[in-house]
Write a structure and sequence with these properties.
- The complex is a heterodimer of chains A (227) and B (752).
- Chain A has 227 residues and is an alpha+beta fold.
- Chain A has helices at residues 9-23, 37-40, 73-81, 122-137, 178-184, 200-208, 221-224; strands at 27-28, 34-35, 66-67, 86-95, 107-117, 143-147, 153-163, 166-176, 192-199.
- Chain A has seven helices and nine strands; from the N terminus they run αββαβαββαβββαβαα.
- In chain A, a hairpin with a 5-residue loop joins strand 6 (143-147) and strand 7 (153-163).
- In chain A, helix 3 packs across helix 5 (178-184).
- Chain A starts with 8 loop residues before the first helix and ends with a helix.
- With 752 residues, chain B is α+β, with helices and mostly antiparallel strands.
- Chain B folds into six domains: 2-38 and 151-177, Phenylalanyl-tRNA Synthetase, Chain B, domain 1 (2-Layer Sandwich), CATH 3.30.56.10; 43-145, OB fold (Dihydrolipoamide Acetyltransferase, E2P), CATH 2.40.50; 191-393, Phenylalanyl-tRNA Synthetase, Chain B, domain 3 (3-Layer(bba) Sandwich); 401-464, 2-Layer Sandwich (Phenylalanyl-tRNA Synthetase, Chain B, domain 1); 481-644, BirA Bifunctional Protein, domain 2 (2-Layer Sandwich), CATH 3.30.930; 665-751, Ferrodoxin-fold anticodon-binding domain (Alpha-Beta Plaits).
- Chain B has 21 helices and 39 strands.
- In chain B, strand 3 (43-53) and strand 4 form a beta hairpin.
- In chain B, helix 6 crosses helix 7 and helix 11 (406-413) crosses helix 13 (450-461).
- At the A-B interface, helix 1, strand 1, strand 4, helix 4 and strand 6 of A face helix 8, helix 9, helix 11, helix 13 and helix 14 of B.
Chain lengths: 227, 752
């Protein structure tokens, strides 16, 4: 008798999201998990001498490098390797230096999206995200956009969906900050762009009602084999 | 940041319900984490059933109340109560103005809570008796659902908006949202003829570190507790009242966002304030009682011969306000954001003050803050305000001034707002507008480019007014390494291997599992947890630990794809492992897998761990087989095939069952059923027997003459677990018995 193995729920959810973005013309780009401070922070307008640095608790290596705190570390790398228009998604593992419990993990997965072209507007971002969320959660899903601050974008925008009667944050996004474009070597008078980031773990937890975020990295087959 | 709704009304009249306020703030960029009534929701409405005298004192009574379900006996001193009245009761555990109600014994009689007055609930001034509620008040319900009270908003203020870390700051936001403006009472001070400048002097070593420093001098004040209203506002916002002078400094910080400090003037040598960098190894004991060894990175406030405060962070014990203090110096300054940050980081000391200085205070509001503080101190502590402010540093404000890029703003947001509409929004936010130019308000430090202005326009005008704009079509994106990895995962799942994710870290203990030397590993400098000490250079330790953890599975077949880290290189590796009876099949499966990838199976070197090696690492299995390989090498072989790979989406219906921290128990059941019976139906039925069944797995299905014509055997593993305990035999037996009964009856099955 043939036994089918299970794929990790994060693998499965990541595929679903990537497949949707693939249909919108986004190419997968992967960046390293250990990176330098410039790619992870400074290039993204997260200066060491500004409190925006404190938003993430970071693992620093003894060699001065950093465990990436987001897959946004691929933004500047990708932009150096290619010319606009750029349409990529960056999946991968990210890290946060904190004590763990049922709702906090040192390890999590993110999917970052980046689109740079001539005359990209906030409306393009909304169309993209509307499109994604409707494909993922059904065409009648309620979506709202809320201002939020992320140093690498301006304006910065959080995205909520109505889930079981309550607004619930699913995405952070915004228009790529002119300083970040400059660090990519892109002329911000000619080009503009948007970026967004999805926290995969929390979305998977929500989807299945998973009670403890640490399950993902527990290796517990009672958990894995359900998927 | 905690904000008291009624405090906002010192600055702006607005008529918004809590829900409306939360919605307006959220949609304009101020994240509201929580809003709750100032009354703890454990204060419930009860009815007085019986009143009897206290056996040991005439001043107290024993009151019996009911919440409709339960009765409570409460010792109470109030005289205004009668049987049948409806009153609020704080249950044990309730927070009343910062005090937690405990079960107590009052003169020999136990009291299970407290009946509350208006004043205790902070819903009025009456403290003479218990608050008597209307007859229609719903008994048993929380009081907050019945009466109006003040609310506390808990906000997440992003690092760019230091100006919102105060009540006036949030009032300004709300004013812009309701198209109004705040009212700020001018401060008039009654000052004595004595001059502050005769009492103190101020000197700044470097105005880059401290652009401006203002000081006022108050004499003959009397230290004591601050009035109740002031204490209550502090408590509501999470601050602890200390004494009238210190309370005013904290109050003004929460009110106006300007951190203040008060020094005991008589403890300051030469009555001279110097703002300077600390000398290396200079020491100061701060108000928290801790000694700090300072360096040139720390900006300090000093007198002629010693440090008396760490600038913008915390005061020194040597100049602290005590009950004996008579004369004080109030400090209101602007400290450089970056300098304060570096200083706080060096000392690993973050305070409410440093938090605000790092984010930037309002340099245009310093004088107002020191004046309001002086006025309030005189009210609550008496004494005299000496005339004049002693000032040092810059006198002018440097504000950002630029052209408004109306077209670019409209284009980015796809709005068609007129220039005057844009001007109007900016004016509401406190910008000065003149002839197509703007000047930022002195409290905003986050406006640096036209995109920042666009955000202001967008968030006030409303993101809901932005129309989605369709993205142009492009060619299908190229496929790459990611697609190869996903394809490998599918192949392995088809061969019965399940995918696990293990951590990227190794602890010092983990190094023993695979003899690696820390010299080969990347090391984390600042791990909070010891398990995050090194980065793994192999997937083997993780996979062996996973096998050890899953001891209640007879057969384990797993794989992982993950990054590993050498000193100079990051690689993506694949590991495949098996353990248990069926693992003898492992080499076959690997051959199979290699064939599917079109790779020579010699590439896959199978390692075998026997029971002796395994027992050292607490794995009780006869063997483990595994293969670890660099997946980039495999991918290179498949370069030309990438375009054939599609992302497969599983259609499996998943109804997630929690996984217990306690061990599971496995029982196997085999049934003889008709050959046309679907195993999926049995699976679903077995799951439905109990919530404690975490997993049902079909492990055998075959027909045999033994069972009679038209019959087959279905065998299942059933995994049982409980959320909070290890299951007992009797629990398990009862679930298994129910399962057997159900399956036998429903499918006319026979247990083997």
């Amino acid at each position: 008798m043939k036994i089918q193995g299970s794929l990790h729920p994060i693998t499965q959810f990541m595929r679903e999201t990537i497949k949707i973005f693939e249909s919108l013309g986004f190419e997968v780009y992967e960046s390293p998990e250990v990176d330098n401070e410039w790619n992870n922070f400074d290039a993204l307008n997260v200066a060491a001498d500004h409190p925006v640095r404190d938003v993430q608790d970071t693992f620093w290596l003894t060699n001065g490098r950093v465990l990436r705190t987001h897959t946004s570390n691929g933004q500047v790398r990708a932009a150096k390797e290619r010319k606009p228009p750029i349409r990529i998604v960056i999946p991968g593992r990210c890290f946060r230096n904190e004590a763990t419990d049922a709702t906090h993990e040192t390890t999590f997965y993110q999917l970052e999206g980046l689109y740079i072209d001539k005359d990209v507007k906030v409306g393009h971002l909304f169309w993209t995200l509307d499109n994604f969320l409707k494909k993922m959660y059904g065409s009648d899903i309620e979506i709202r956009y809320r201002p939020h601050h992320y140093p690498f974008v301006e304006p910065g925008i959080d995205v909520d969906i109505k889930f079981q009667g309550k607004w619930s944050e699913v995405l952070g996004s915004g228009m790529v900050h002119p300083k970040v474009l400059k660090n990519m070597g892109i002329d911000s008078d000619k080009y503009s762009g948007y970026a967004f980031g999805l926290g995969i773990d929390r979305l998977v937890m929500k989807k299945y009602g998973i009670e403890d975020i640490r399950q993902f990295y527990s290796g517990d087959l009672r958990f894995i084999k359900q998927f | 940041m905690k904000i008291l709704k009624s405090w906002l009304k010192d600055y702006i009249d607005f008529n918004l319900t809590d829900d409306e306020l939360v919605s307006k703030l959220s949609l304009s960029g101020t994240e509201v984490e929580n809003i709750h009534s100032i009354i703890d929701n454990q204060v419930v409405i009860v009815r007085i059933e019986k009143i009897s005298p206290h056996p040991n004192t005439d001043k107290l009574q024993i009151v019996e109340v009911s919440d409709g379900k339960e009765k409570f006996r409460i010792v109470c001193g109030a005289t205004n109560i009668k049987i049948g009245q409806i009153v609020p009761m704080a249950k044990v555990g309730t927070n009343i103005a910062g005090n937690i109600i405990k079960e107590t014994e009052i003169r020999g009689v136990k009291s299970a809570g407290m009946l509350c007055s208006e004043k205790e609930l902070r819903i009025g001034d009456d403290h003479t008796g218990i608050k008597i509620l209307a007859e229609n008040a719903p008994i048993g319900q929380p009081l907050v659902e019945f009466i109006k009270s003040d609310s506390i908003l808990e906000l997440e203020i992003t690092p760019n908006r230091g100006d919102c870390l105060s009540h006036i700051g949030l009032a300004r936001e709300i004013a812009a949202l309701v198209a109004s403006s705040i009212k700020k009472e001018p401060i008039s001070l009654k000052m004595s003829s004595k001059r502050a400048a005769d009492a103190i002097t101020v000197e700044i070593e470097n105005t880059n570190d401290c652009p401006r420093y203002l000081a006022r001098f108050l004499s003959e004040i009397k230290i004591g507790p601050s009035p109740k209203w002031l204490q209550e506002r502090l408590i509501a916002c999470g601050a602890t009242p200390i004494n009238n002078i210190v309370d005013v400094t904290n109050y003004i910080m929460l009110d106006l966002g300007q951190p203040l400090h008060a020094f005991d003037a008589d403890k300051i040598n030469g009555r001279k304030i110097i703002v300077r960098r600390a000398k290396n190894k200079e020491n100061i004991v701060t108000l928290d009682g801790k000694g700090n060894s300072l360096s040139r990175d720390n900006l300090i406030i000093a007198d002629k011969n010693k440090a008396i405060a760490i600038a913008g962070i915390m005061g020194g014990l040597n100049s602290e306000i005590t009950v004996e203090t008579k004369n004080i110096i109030i400090e209101a300054a602007e400290f450089n954001r970056k300098v304060t940050r570096k200083s706080a980081k060096a000392l690993n000391l973050t305070t409410e003050a440093s938090y605000r200085f790092e984010r930037g205070i309002d340099p245009g509001g310093i004088q107002y803050a020191i004046d309001k503080a002086a006025k309030l101190m005189k009210e609550v502590a008496g004494g005299e305000i000496h005339s004049g402010i002693v000032k040092a540093g810059e006198t002018t404000l440097h504000l950002y001034d630029d052209v408004i890029e109306y077209n670019k703003i409209n284009n980015l947001l796809d709005f068609s707002l007129s220039e005057s509409e844009i001007d109007h929004i900016l004016k509401l936010l406190g910008f000065l507008i003149k002839d197509g130019h703007f000047i930022t308000p002195s409290w905003r430090h986050d406006i640096e480019c036209w995109q920042d202005l666009a955000e202001e326009i967008g968030r006030i005008y409303g993101y809901n007014k932005i129309h989605p704009l369709i993205l142009s079509k492009t060619a299908s994106p190229k496929k790459n390494f990611y697609y190869f990895k996903e394809n490998v995962k599918d192949q392995l799942a088809d061969l019965g291997f399940s995918e696990v994710y293990n951590y990227s870290y190794l602890s010092a203990d983990d190094l023993k599992i695979l003899v690696s030397s820390p010299k080969e590993l990347l090391e984390i400098k600042n791990p909070i947890q010891p398990e995050n000490k090194y980065l793994k250079n192999s997937l083997v330790p993780g996979i062996l630990k996973t096998i050890a953890k899953n001891s209640f599975f007879d057969n384990i077949a797993i794989f992982e794809i993950g990054n590993v880290f050498g000193k100079s290189q990051e690689k993506t590796k694949l590991i495949i492992a098996a353990s248990g009876k069926q693992s003898t099949d492992f080499p076959n499966k690997i051959n199979n897998f290699a064939a599917k990838l079109g790779i020579d199976s010699d590439k896959f070197k199978i390692q075998r761990f026997d029971s002796r090696q395994l027992s050292n690492i607490k794995i009780r299995k006869p063997d483990v087989f595994l293969v670890e390989i660099d997946i980039n090498d495999l991918a290179n072989k498949a370069k030309n095939k990438l375009d054939e790979f599609n992302l497969k989406i599983s259609k499996k219906e998943i109804c997630y069952r929690f996984v217990s921290k306690f061990p599971s128990v496995t029982r196997d059941l085999a049934f003889i059923v008709r050959t046309n019976t679907k195993s999926d139906n049995l699976l679903a039925d077995i799951y439905s027997v109990s919530e404690l069944i975490n997993r049902v797995e079909l492990f055998d299905e075959f027909e045999s003459d033994k069972f009679g014509a038209g019959n087959k055997n279905l065998a299942f593993h059933i995994f049982l677990q409980a959320p909070n305990r290890t299951l007992k035999d009797q629990d398990i037996n009862s679930i298994i018995a129910k399962t057997i009964l159900l399956i036998e009856k429903k499918y006319k099955a026979k247990l083997r």
